[in-house]
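The authors assume throughout that readers already know how a fold can be written as discrete tokens. Each protein is reduced to its one-letter sequence and a matching series of backbone shape codes. I therefore recommend that a typical entry be quoted early in the introduction. For illustration, here is how one protein appears when written out as sequence plus structure tokens:
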Amino acid sequence: MRIIKLIGLIIISCMIQSCMKHDKKTSSLFFSYDNFFWRDTIKIYAHYSECGEWGGHEEFIKIFLNDKVLYANYKKYKINCKDCSKDGDLNQKIQLDTIVEITEKRKESLNTYFHQFIDSKFSSVFPGNAGDYFSIVKSDSTLVLIVYGNNQNNVNNYNDLVMEIIK
């Protein structure tokens, strides 16, 4: 009986140590140059709805590999909702365009955002014809995630990611 308890404790201890070694929410294994190929990119896209059904400004984060180093190119556009054409076209102008190296801290932030995004996907509800649109797409189309709606958490999560990327 004591041997069974001892074996049980050893198994539980090994399981706990295994879980502690590889916490999926903080792991940045995906963001390794080994997982990116030539011309391989991940695009994180945000399209806001400050102009109602006409949409709003757009933002992009493009993750790419250059000489075995990962980079993020962040672009933010600005619009004036009053300048909307009769066709609903918004004249977007570049507000910010910057490229930064993806550090370990940025990898953790990206990984956290990916997990938040997937969690949000499970609870998203189609809101109608006006809402914020977020997507994560890999250039070879093996990863395509889209969230659409009025969930403020999606906006907050994206803004938190942007702040970590550009600082």
In short: Residues 26-166 form one domain. The beta strands are 41-47, 58-66, 69-78, 93-101, 132-138, 144-149. Residues 2-21 form the longest helix (20 residues).
